[in-house]
């Protein structure tokens, strides 16, 4: 006889979607606080499967994608979000090295959403595009209003010094570098003709007429094939039948007859 199970059926009812959402958000907060962003992304996805239009979950998903440097996915995620997210989109474009698109988007904001993050992004875009004077202006604005005891103040000061060094080199630093060169090198640089400007052509797309001329190949001198231990005229000459099979050599028949004439022992 089979024993009947003594386990009582569970009396708990399945959780409702709202209760599951609450539990997911509790786990999500703990994962973010612990820096477990990969697991937090999975939990956030579970919430969005229950409530695809949950504003908090959508915003948290964007934050997590940016934290994990998944900028292409973040850009696609922004397309599914309602509302104005021009700053977040501009920042994502900047991280994707699409500086022109990011700058155009910031210019189109026309003073909207001008918080400190926007000024930071303007400064970084100016620095990356080589506009070091503009970057200096933005970083000076940020430095004047930053708390000296914060990490932001230290970061702004570092970026300000880097922008200042680049701006100084472009305006006068290169002249000082030239002054430190030997006079002979300076004279050579000043007397050298300007470089001929040529258009770059990819090697894979180059036409035969643009191919570089090749140097004519010289006639190679054939090296001697005489072995190092052989002295011509002194060492014995090699066997002229060495290229023939042993059965075809003249001494093979005589050797065979000698072997055939031998008598076997009793």
UniProtKB/TrEMBL annotation:
InterPro entries: Signal_recog_part_SRP72_RNA-bd (IPR013699), SRP72 (IPR026270), SRP72_TPR-like (IPR031545), TPR-like_helical_dom_sf (IPR011990). Residues 216-252 form the Signal recognition particle SRP72 subunit RNA-binding domain. Pfam families: SRP72 (PF08492), SRP_TPR_like (PF17004). Keywords: Cytoplasm, Endoplasmic reticulum, Ribonucleoprotein, Signal recognition particle. It is found in: Cytoplasm; Endoplasmic reticulum. Residues 239-249 have a biased composition (Basic and acidic residues). PANTHER family: SIGNAL RECOGNITION PARTICLE 72 (PTHR14094), SIGNAL RECOGNITION PARTICLE SUBUNIT SRP72 (PTHR14094:SF9). GO terms for cellular component: endoplasmic reticulum; signal recognition particle, endoplasmic reticulum targeting. It comes from Fistulina hepatica ATCC 64428. This is Signal recognition particle subunit SRP72. GO terms for biological process: SRP-dependent cotranslational protein targeting to membrane. Residues 215-266 are annotated as: Disordered.
């Amino acid at each position: 006889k089979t024993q009947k199970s003594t386990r009582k059926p569970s009396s708990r009812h399945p959780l409702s979607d709202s209760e599951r959402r609450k539990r997911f958000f509790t786990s999500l907060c703990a994962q973010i606080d612990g820096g477990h962003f990969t697991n937090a992304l999975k939990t956030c996805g579970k919430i969005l499967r229950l409530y695809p239009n949950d504003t908090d979950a959508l915003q948290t998903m964007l934050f997590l994608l940016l934290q994990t440097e998944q900028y292409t996915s973040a850009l696609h995620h922004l397309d599914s979000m309602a509302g104005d997210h021009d700053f977040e989109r501009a920042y994502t474009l900047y991280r994707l090295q699409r500086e022109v698109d990011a700058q155009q988007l910031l210019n189109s904001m026309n003073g909207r959403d001008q918080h400190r993050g926007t000024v930071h992004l303007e400064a970084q875009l100016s620095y990356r595009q080589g506009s070091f004077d503009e970057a200096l202006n933005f970083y000076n604005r940020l430095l004047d209003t930053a708390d000296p005891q914060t990490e932001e103040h230290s970061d702004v000061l570092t970026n300000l010094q880097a922008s200042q060094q680049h701006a100084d080199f472009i305006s006068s630093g290169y002249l000082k570098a030239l002054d430190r060169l030997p006079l002979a090198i300076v004279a050579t640089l000043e007397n050298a003709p300007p470089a001929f400007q040529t258009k770059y052509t990819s090697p894979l797309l180059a036409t035969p007429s643009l191919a570089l001329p090749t140097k004519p190949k010289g006639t190679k001198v054939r090296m001697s094939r005489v072995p190092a231990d052989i002295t011509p005229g002194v060492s014995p000459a090699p066997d002229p039948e060495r290229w023939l099979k042993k059965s075809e050599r003249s001494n093979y028949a005589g050797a065979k007859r000698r072997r055939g004439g031998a008598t076997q022992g009793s």
